[in-house]
Amino acid sequence: MIIRHLSEIAQTEQAVHAETWSSFRLLTKKDGMGFSMHETWIHAGTETHIWYKHHLEAVYCIEGEGEIEPYGSGQPIPIQPGMLYALNDHDRHLLRATSKLRLICVFNPPLRGDERHGSDGAYPAEDV
Ligand code: 9YT
Questions:
Q1: I need a surface site. Which of 9, 15, 25, 116 has the fewest CB within 10 A?
Q2: Rounded to the nearest whole angstrom, what is the distance from the C-alpha of residue 125 to the centroid of ligand 1?
């Protein structure tokens, strides 16, 4: 059994800080679960372009307010605690945080743990 706490991740390379978000990768590829699980904080007042071409991601909001806009739709969908979205079609989107968002994110295939978004909003496929 794996037992882990967010506070243990904060000082490791599994804590990744980008311009608009911080991600704490609680479970990663090497844990052998077949998925990775992260707590992600999206900074208040930011917009992030995301397009996971090589991964599926499910996102569950536990704190904060924001919105997700499927790319090109012009129709934002509110995010609040209790809301889940699943990018089951590698959906390109814009993610906006009105206040700090705390999100639980699950990736299939799992991330290694140190990935950052490329300029296209994706993580690389080399380990997939
Ligand atoms: C919701 C989302 O995808 N945010 C970007 C970071 C990502 N969740 C991650 O790497 O944990």
A1: 116
A2: 16
